[in-house]
User: Fold this.
Amino acid sequence: MIEDCRLKIDQYSLGSAIKNLQSSIFNDLCYLLQSNMLSDFNGVVKKGSREESLLASVAWDRLPRHVAIIMDGNGRWAAQRGQPRIAGHRAGVEAVRAAVDTGARLGLQALTLYAFSTENWKRPRYEVDALMRMLRRYLRLELDEIDRQNIKFQTIGRTGALADNVRAEIARATERTSKNKGMILTVALNYGGRAEIVDACKAAVRRLTDEGSRPDEITEERIANELYTRNLPELDLLVRTSGELRISNFLLWQSAYSEIYVTDTLWPDFRRQQLLQAVVDYQGRDRRFGGLKLVVSRK
Assistant:
C-alpha cells in the first residue's frame, strides 16, 4: 500500500514537472515570437505612440489568419476638402501601402482588399478610367517592395472584363511574386460576392457532370472548393472603413462566421494604427461559430 502511494506520488510529481516544463517552454516560445514580431516594426513605429501601445496589446499567437478590408470613404474624404472624387482615390493609395506593410509585418497569412466591384462600372467613365490608371501605377511603383517583403500578389473577380493593359500589369505582378511564401495580397477587381457564388456553383455542377454525378449531389464543400478564394484561409476579420454598416456584396460566402469591425475612419486616413486597433478588437471577441461555450458553475 505504501509503495503504491509512493509510486502515485512520483507519477504525479513527474506529470506536474512535465506540465510545468511544457508551460515554461510555451511561455519562452511566445516571448521569442513576440520579440521577433515586434522587431519587424523597429524603425517604423515611434516610441510612446498609440501604435506602440497597440502593438504591445497584440496576442501574437492569436492573430487573424485572413483579414479583408472594404475600402470606403474616398468620395466623402474628397468632398470634405472641396476636391473631386478622384483626389480621394489618389489619397487612398497611401492607405493601401500602410495596410499592406502592416499586414506583412504582423505576419498575416492573407490580406484581401475590395478595390473595384461589379457595380462600380455604373460610375462615370472618367472615374472608372482613373481608378484603372491608379491600379496600374500602384503595381508598377509598389511591385519591388511587395516582392521584397515576400508577399504573393493575386486578384479575384471577373478580371477577364478588364482592359488589356490592366490585365497585363496584373499578370506581371502575379508572375513575379508567384513563388513568394509570405502574406497573400489579394485585390478584388470587378468582384461581386453574388457573382462569385454563381460562378462557383456553375463550376461545381460542371465538375459533378464530368464525374458522372448528378447536379443535386452538390455540397457546401464542393462550392467552397470552386470559390475565387479557395487557396486562402477562412476569413477571420472583415474590416469596413467610413462607418457604413453593410458588407456591400463582398465575400458573402466567406464572411458567414467572420468577425466584422467597422471604423468611422475614411479610407484615405486609414493607417497602421487603425489596422492594429481592428486586430486588437478582434482578439477580444469570443468566437463560438454558432455554438455555446460551456460555463462550469462553481458553488
About this structure: The first helix runs from residue 2 to 39.
